[in-house]
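Appendix B, example 12.
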Amino acid sequence: MPDHATPASAAHLSRAHVDSWLLSLGAEVGENPPSIEELRASASWRVTKPLRAVRGRERLSRVRSRRLPFRLPSLDASSDLESSREALHQRLRAIEPHLLPHQPSAHRPALSVEELLGELCARALADQSSEDSEHPRASLWLVIVAVSGCFPDHNLLLGLSRDISEATEREAVARILHHCGVWATRHGSAQRRISVVDDKIVAFVNLTGRFGFNSGVQRVTRETLARWYPSGEIELTVMTDDGTALRALGESEADRVIAWNQTKSDDTSELDDDDFALIVPWRTTLFLPEIVSGTNALTLGALARFTPNTCVALVYDSIPASTGFAVPRLENLRFSTYLSMLKYFDKGIAISASSAEEFQGFTAALEAQGLRGPEITSVLLPIEHIPETDGADEPSADELPLVLSVGSNEPRKNQLAVIYAAEVLWRRGLAFRLQIVGGRGDTGLTEIGEAARALRSLGRSIEVLRDVDESTLSRAYKSARFSVFVSLHEGYGLPVAESLAVGTPVVTTRYGSTAEIAEGGGCILVDPRDDDEIVEAIASLLTDDTLLGSLNEQIDARRDATWDDYAVAIRASVTGESGALA
């Protein structure tokens, strides 16, 4: 941003003009709106019908779940006007020190809403015309946040930027009010208050803060931030329900992130967005340990594109794009919006070297769009040894050895190949139990369950368990002679790490991230597309106690990173500063 001060001649609208705008929020936009018959006869009405239906259902669902309060128009216009003025003034004052390099406030009288609005809009107009600024529309982005109470998406910011490009200062203020009024009306954001954060890292923990489930991504987020947050360097945020802004967390939401335990697994946040200030990152770092999609990705993508923040994301895998046939179609669509956001980020920290290679390919492809894309590095996820769990005793001598296959119900997990290998060995006369454990996944994928039922009807010892808790999963790993995880494509391969963490050897894929984990020992590597290799690897671990003992010794000798190590490495990668966490 240029160092020159905003001219004292900045055009100010009258109080009556601003008050009229505030009163209009929530009313019809325009003096002569078309009739409903005219709207329904238009091409745009027909084209947007599916989108209106989807958005209508989403808003109704939010109202019913009390995540989007239903408000009737207020009968006290004067009270609404005064509270709206106060909220607008608070937001404008919050951004003032970041855009207007005035003398210290003690030597400067407080500006009215109209004066402050005029000077801030004049600054945004001047900055977007400056050739010296790396982010010429950053000031306009911040002004939109203050005036509308919403973070702008790409279309809003670009449209407004073009609309004011040849305008006088007074015209620019009026046009900014007009554009922002549409958003403030649509999202009911006139009463929001903001806090501009420029001295902490702003971490986005929307799923982790709002919900108690603890999948792979949420586990990484919680384990990392639970160790980093006490340093005082982190400001936790979630997205508002309408997807238009970051807000502070309530106490219960923060506990789900930094103090999670199994009792919180079914938690869902019921807090009202309006009870919390918006958090506006400015000249700081935005850190995304979660995957973002949909409207949230559009909002954060515009923030990354237009503001002077450094934006860093943990990136997990590119499976929805590169192995799209193996995931539900909705995941493909969500991932496309995620990539549309990520391309404006500064850095991506992959969870494995294999994952990093994939995202480096994505970054290289962005050259065709004239974009630099994020710098991609990697920090391998840790292998944290699981504490002993009651009920996980060694199997008795007369109990069949257990072969364990852990993985969600997805084709890429390749569990049908494991079932096939087991049936081949049962036919050879080997005696063992096969247990398949993991998430239920797409209910339309029934092959695993059907194959298991068919084999049980033949007297085979096969069991499928879905959506088990962590203690059950831990007991399964400890009870197994070995585990099998021959996935076709992974960003990391958590079942391999979990098995090694309890001292259980693994048959796993010889390429990608699983091979990276296996480098420390304790694994037999196979080609997951070669059924014969899988069969022989399982047979060898069922029949060769010497080989099994050797793998156990390798596991005992491993010196793997812990979550403490991982949190330190992530902080160093995000901040560029080494050293232990406070």
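The first helix runs from residue 15 to 24. The radius of gyration is 28 Å.
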